[in-house]
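Sequence design from tokenized structure. All designs in this work follow the same two-part layout: the structure record, then the generated sequence. An example of the structure record is given first.
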């Protein structure tokens, strides 16, 4: 130990006084410790400490130490964690190492934080996706959802080893993933699920009702395929050019019922009717009786003849008649446009149209010559323009009281699950059994004779002026002489007998507040060149539906049952249009 000059003088003085060597050394040692204590500088306490190593030294906690600051005093907390050293522990440590420090209060503490390398959940997801790349079908766009999305792993900053996937399990059917990541003396178990992704177009902004969707109104987003049901439109071509049926929210997928073809023809609006043949183009004005989009067949009323025809929408306020009505419109045009040059083809068309003032049906038959009658497409009954919601008197609603500790539910028709039709969209079988017979016989005879005679021999002196008004000279005393004789005799006989036995499946279209079901069904059967059509609609009670899910036609309230057909057999059974026209219009 290096002694200062005053200490050396003290030792020489002690020896000269006759003290022993030991006493001299003790005296010198005490003075040396006092001198050393006097030479130590005061130390201060650090408040916030961040360490990289696994241990804590004196220099990490106190300020103003020398070489002794490298002494280890505690183990550092785990990476990313914190530990607090209280005042009592710090005082004991300072005294043990001979530091001139003592706490002023119990609030003198030090917080030790261990630095770390942070591995986030996104980093773990990226490692798992890289490991799953060989197990996922090529070309599939997928994402991994971790069960613990907030997972964070802290590694020592001086660790040379990083986390690696040491075990991986993947179930392609369920998409479940289980893995173990190891490294830097850590072992982490993670789990998650693979979701397949799909792209879908969504609006870039809110679109109002009736807005025509343009390409600039859409953007593509990537979403999970499980979030897209079969009603979501994923083809941009099926959206662009369509009109918004309801408000479309920004960034939300578009469903089939959200858009519809834009209405080019408004109900009660004026339209231009066009008939085009190889030799002429005829146009007329009409009024639309229903809304129509591009390609829709709607009813049009001719404003000149007041007749209703079917036409196809071809553009804004423009329609084209189908081939079944071409000759009819040719006749209409011939009557309204007398400036057109006479042509044999037009004359023939006018003659044909003149024999059938209700010629739409006849022209339909002409267009189907040599072919079978077409069967109509299957349609939703609710989309029929003539469909109306049924409203009937209903009893006051009653809420059934639930019985505790009972399997029976008040109001239930069966202890077990009832498989009979009870909700909208359910199917019920209607049994139609009709045995109808009617006989009527009427006879009418009428005779009338009429004679009229009028003269004006004197008319205030104006009787001679009649010769100037009328084309030929007249005799005022014999102006009018009319005789009429009418005889009418009519006989009518109706003898009808019908028997129908068949079954028909109908769809429940509405459930009334009292539980009754509104049904509607249609059936078409084509045999050779004859199509038989059967339609039924009405209201049934659920209790009238038997265990086989069948209901009798006589149990249908407000029943509307139609059984008919179209084709060669039906045409033969009908009167010719000329006969029907004479019966209606002939005044004599």
């Amino acid at each position: 130990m290096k002694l200062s000059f005053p200490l050396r003088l003290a030792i020489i003085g002690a020896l000269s006084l006759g003290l022993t060597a030991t006493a001299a050394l003790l005296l010198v040692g005490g003075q040396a410790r006092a001198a050393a204590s006097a030479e130590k500088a005061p130390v201060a306490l650090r408040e916030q400490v961040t360490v990289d190593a696994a241990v804590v030294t004196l220099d990490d906690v106190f300020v103003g130490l020398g070489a002794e600051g490298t002494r280890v005093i505690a183990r550092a907390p785990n990476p990313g964690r914190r530990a607090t050293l209280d005042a009592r522990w710090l005082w004991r440590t300072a005294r043990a190492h001979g530091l001139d420090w003592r706490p002023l209060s119990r609030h003198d503490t030090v917080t030790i934080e261990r630095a770390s390398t942070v591995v986030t959940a996104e980093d773990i997801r990226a490692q798992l996706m890289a490991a799953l790349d060989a197990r996922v079908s090529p070309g599939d766009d997928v994402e991994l959802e971790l069960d613990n999305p907030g997972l964070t792993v802290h590694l020592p900053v001086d660790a040379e080893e990083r986390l690696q996937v040491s075990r991986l399990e993947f179930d392609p059917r369920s998409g479940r993933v289980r893995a173990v990541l190891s490294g830097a003396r850590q072992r982490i178990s993670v789990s998650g699920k693979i979701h397949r992704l799909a792209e879908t177009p969504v609006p870039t902004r809110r679109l109002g009702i009736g807005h025509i969707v343009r390409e600039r109104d859409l953007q593509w987003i990537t979403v999970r395929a499980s979030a897209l049901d079969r009603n979501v439109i994923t083809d941009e071509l099926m959206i662009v050019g369509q009109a918004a049926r309801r408000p479309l929210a920004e960034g939300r997928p578009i469903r089939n019922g959200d858009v519809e073809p834009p209405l080019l023809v408004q109900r009660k609006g004026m339209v231009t009717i066009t008939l085009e043949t190889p030799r002429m183009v005829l146009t007329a004005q009409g009024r639309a009786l229903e809304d129509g989009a591009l390609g829709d067949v709607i009813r049009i009323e001719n404003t000149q003849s007041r007749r209703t025809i079917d036409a196809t929408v071809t553009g804004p306020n423009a329609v084209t008649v189908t081939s079944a009505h071409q000759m009819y419109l040719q006749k209409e045009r011939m009557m309204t446009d007398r400036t057109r040059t006479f042509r044999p083809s037009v004359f023939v068309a006018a003659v044909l149209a003149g024999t059938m003032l209700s010629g739409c049906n006849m022209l339909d038959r002409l267009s189907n010559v040599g072919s079978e009658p077409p069967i109509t497409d299957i349609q939703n009954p609710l989309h029929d323009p003539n469909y109306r919601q049924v409203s009937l008197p209903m009893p006051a609603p009653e809420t059934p009281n639930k019985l505790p500790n009972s399997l029976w539910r008040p109001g239930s028709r069966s202890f077990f699950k009832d498989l009979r039709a009870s909700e909208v969209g359910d199917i019920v079988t209607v049994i139609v059994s009709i045995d109808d017979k009617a006989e009527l016989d009427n006879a009418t005879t009428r005779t009338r004779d009429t004679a009229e005679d009028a003269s004006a021999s004197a008319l205030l002196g104006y009787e001679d002026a009649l010769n100037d008004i009328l084309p030929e000279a007249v005799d005022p005393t014999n102006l009018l002489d009319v005789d009429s004789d009418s005889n009418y005799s009519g006989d009518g006989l109706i003898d009808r007998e019908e028997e129908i036995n068949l079954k028909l499946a109908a769809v429940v279209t509405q459930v009334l507040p009292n539980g009754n079901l509104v049904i509607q069904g249609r059936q078409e059967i084509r045999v050779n060149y004859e199509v038989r059509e059967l339609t039924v609609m009405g209201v049934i009670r659920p209790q009238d539906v038997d265990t086989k899910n069948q209901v009798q036609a006589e149990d249908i309230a407000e029943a509307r049952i139609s059984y008919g057909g179209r084709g060669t057999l039906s045409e033969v059974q009908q009167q010719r249009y000329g006969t029907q026209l004479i019966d209606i219009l002939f005044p004599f």
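Confidence is low (pLDDT under 50) at residues 17-38, 323-330, 338-360. We note this feature because it recurs in several other targets discussed in the main text.
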